[in-house]
Amino acid sequence: MRPILSIILLGFVFSCKEAPKKDTAETVQDIEAIARKIHEEVITLDTHADINVKNFTDTLNYTQKLDTQVDLPKMNAGGLDVAWFIVYTGQDTLTVEGYAKAKENAMSKFKAIYQLCEEFAPDKIGLATNSEEVRTLIAEGKKVAMIGVENAYPIGEDLSEFETYYNLGARYISLSHNGHSQFCDSNTGEEDNVWLYNGLSNLGKEAVKEMNRLGIMIDVSHPSKESMKQMIALSKAPIIASHSSARALCNHSRNLDDEQLELMKQNGGVVQTVAFSSYLNTEKHEALAEYMKGIYSEVADSLGLKWYDRSQFKTLTDTERTTFFSNYRNIMALGKEKAAKRTDVPPAVNVSDFVDHIDYLVEKMGIDHVGISSDFDGGGGIEGWSDASETFNVTLELVKRGYTKKQIAQLWGENLLRVLDEVQAIAKEMKQNS
């Protein structure tokens, strides 16, 4: 069932049958004004924004308007209060050497986040590790950084490293990414039906217990369905999916099916709906991607360069990769300018498609178990919410759909903060009883 319209919206009717035509323009203005007020008053929290350490230096950092989807000017423009910055590391071999190399990368990202908050912009943004710190920083007029770890692979096989990550500020960790880790199977196993553990490894089972003990939220957005089911069975605390959507609406292995949604509801966790176009509407995404591939190829060719699909990245030489990514954003910008002048461009996945997933998750799980994420600078971004400066558009669409201020507050941050509080309370109780 759709959320009931708040009393303040009862004067505005959204169906074509009931809305007087002469009031249409005024009604649109009134709805936007209501949405603006709500957006300013609730805590807006995005659980997934990737980072590149190259954007965390003395001369180039998030105090400036960069070509990234997230930076402080864009957060200010869009009214985004809290960004979970992601310590992400790609996966190599399950060896001591592989873990050591990955750890170096992970530590560089922790360092970058600290530099932003302590050196580059301590007057503008602060690091939070619990809900009280989030509210305090916002009351001080600052933006908030929180830390999530996408892939526990850099931790290696030493479970004490989870405490190291906790002490560095990590408050959620995913046990795998795109590939089976030492801890659990990944959703990517669906592609070839090859699994390492049929869920969690023995080390992964111990990792679940350790995260419960420490007060780290367990993230199930990338692990396999069987891994997720086993985590829920083992965990004494609620879990989260930091950036996933509804599989019933878009059949992608990164999304959660109805059985998983029911398990998340029973567990008391939260699913952070993700604004990643191919996880929202595969058909629309692929049609536009194929069209734009031709545009980008034309632009690249005019510059004497080559354009590659994501599927080709692994085959590139170091030189080809460096050349491609150094020109990537420029080619995309020129391509979008070229496409804007055409009339045959397929429709893009947009905020309405995104909120369709929120509607579905709310219907299946209840308003208490749904949240919002972007996956900005990691592939996320849709028409209408293409970067942090357009964050208000999500709230506007939620108001148009009839969500109340309280419900919007829950979706934008309160549900996630509630889970964080519960995870930390359970950890405190476990320590007292040990």
Itemize the secondary structure elements and their pairings:
Elements (H helix, E strand, L loop, with lengths): L23 H18 L3 E6 L21 H7 L3 E7 L7 H25 L4 E3 L3 H9 L3 E8 L10 H7 L2 E5 L27 H13 L2 E3 L5 H10 L5 E2 L16 H10 L2 E5 L2 H4 L1 H21 L15 H23 L10 H15 L4 E4 L18 H9 L4 H29 L1
Parallel strand pairs: 1-2, 2-4, 3-4, 4-5, 5-6, 7-8, 8-9
Helix pairs in contact: 1-13, 7-8, 10-11
Features:
single chain; 434 residues; alpha/beta; 2 domains; six-stranded parallel β-sheet; 14 helices; 10% strand
How many DSSP E strands? 9
Question: Low-confidence runs (pLDDT<50, min 5 residues)?
Answer: 1-23
- Summarize model confidence as the mean pLDDT: 93
In angstroms, what separates the terminal alpha carbons?
44 Å
Identify the CATH class of the largest domain.
Answer: Alpha Beta
CATH architecture of the largest domain: Alpha-Beta Barrel
- Helix count from the secondary structure assignment: 14
- Would you list the SSEs in sequence order as H and E? HEHEHEHEHEHEHEHEHHHHEHH
Radius of gyration over all CA atoms, rounded: 22 Å
Sum up the overall morphology in one term.
Answer: globular
In CATH terms, the superfamily of the largest domain is: Metal-dependent hydrolases
Walk me through the structure:
- With 434 residues, the chain is of the alpha/beta class.
- It folds into 2 domains: 7-281 and 349-433, TIM Barrel (Alpha-Beta Barrel), CATH 3.20.20; 283-348, no CATH class.
- Helices cover 46% and strands 10% of the residues.
- Residues 1-23 have low confidence and may be disordered.
Summary?
By secondary structure, this protein is α/β, with parallel strands linked by helices. It is built from 14 helices and 9 strands.
